[in-house]
Amino acid sequence: MKVGFIGAGKVGTGLGILLTNSSIKASGYLSRNIGSSLKASSLTNSTAFLKYEDIINASDVIIISTKDDCIKSIVEEILQYKSIIKNKIFAHLSGSISIDVLKPLKEYGHTMVLHPVQTCPSIEAAVSLLPESYFTIEGDNFAVNAGINIAKEIGARPIVIDGINKPLYHAACVMASNYLVTLIKAANELLKASGFPFDKHPNLLLPLINGTLKNISERGCDASLSGPIARCDIETVKKHIKSITDDELLMLYKTMGNATIKFFKISGDEKIAELEEIFNE
What we know:
14% strand; 281 residues; 13 helices; 8 strands; alpha/beta
């Protein structure tokens, strides 16, 4: 099986690099930025294509690995080559875009969504993190089987899905990854404001973060909550709120406090009622 990539971004390039060590090979890359396709092809020992017809002819699977808002126009471009797309597999990597965007191609071939549930801020991160990550796969049986093979070949874990609410699914991924980065950034800002020598010890919170994730991995969220809200320690929470002078950070702290009470169903106690009142002031 040969896989061609339309778009030479971080995930597509990283996936192609990982496939070079498998029985599935990258045929090459087609990109509006020739520099990107040349770089990706050099990293994968494949071809930097200049024409749609060339990458289609050279590939069994064509993965659209561009920004989400480009997928529809690329599908329209592919449809200009109806005579050569029969029985090809077409996929995109987006977590938020429905498989329906590929529907015009179903008349000629097979379609799927192959979404890596991972954060890839660089090609190096993609190569490091995609193996052992989950890939959710949606599509017709022929395409899904190909997607499962691609995921397994790089050491990833495929999960076949069907008919889920993709925006909600993607929102979950965003909260677990992107917003986690924001939350840790906010915690670092509080550290700086406290007078802690952050410049000398910028990784102070990393063992705490890693320990929390380890607990969640081993025990689940419900058994991993600790801290002042879990203990109903009102005085500590009051001290926190009094010390946070930045309005946005204070709002975030209170919002997270309310969310903790709600999602962990901490209720039925006068102290919890008092905490809720504090968080809602």
